[in-house]
Amino acid sequence: MSGKPKLYYFNARGRMESIRWLLAAAGVEFEECFLETKDDLTKLRKDGYLLFQQVPMVEIDGMKMVQSRAIGNYIAMKYNLYGKDLKERALIDMYVEAVIDLNELLMTHPFQPADKKEQHFATIVDKATNRYFPVYEKVLKDHGQDFLVGNQFSRADVQLLETLLMAEECKPDILAKFPLLQSFKARISNIPTVKKFLQPGSQRKPPLQEKDVPKLMKIFH
């Protein structure tokens, strides 16, 4: 296969959104094939597209790639968003893995039962402001550079910005105590490819609404 990468997922953020962000930040155009029904997912499985029977799946460079971390690593390496050496890559991996942990909390919030939503929200705020954001604030303070690793735009910057914006959707003042992260957010948001992705009409997906949760659950269960 040649041409644009093709993304197979439902028409929502989920575990595909970080992949959309990476491709967009790299300036790569991509196509999307949305799963609208359980039959759409079943067909992908029967056709042998899904190595482990699950999405996200991305067709790129003749491969049908699954597992979101593997896809992200491949895109980052292919488009020079993965540092200049092994040590920088290790730092990027550490920062991205932590971002993914927080992202998972944010992403699963709409799926929480009503009686657990308040506690789940409190957990998000606690971990964001006491565990994760202080680390990135300190990294930026200690090295005094524009980017998280090697003073060059990388996957870590892309994924952190994505998650900062998601956290602000959850709690608009969540960055109040983190001035360097606020500056980082503004700076990375102004990179031309990122700025374009943040404009209305891009392939960036809106926050998941609770009314859409049952439809998604029917596709996967």
UniProtKB/TrEMBL annotation:
Its EC number is 2.5.1.18. It holds the Pfam family GST_C_3. GO terms for molecular function: glutathione transferase activity. Keywords: Transferase. PROSITE patterns: GST_CTER, GST_NTER. The keyword Nucleotide-binding does not apply. Gene3D superfamilies: 1.20.1050.10, Glutaredoxin (3.40.30.10). GO terms for biological process: glutathione metabolic process; xenobiotic metabolic process. Residues 85-208 form the GST C-terminal domain. PANTHER family: GLUTATHIONE S-TRANSFERASE, GLUTATHIONE S-TRANSFERASE A1. Belongs to the GST superfamily. Alpha family. This is glutathione transferase. It comes from Eudyptes sclateri (Erect-crested penguin). The gene is GSTA1_CHICK.
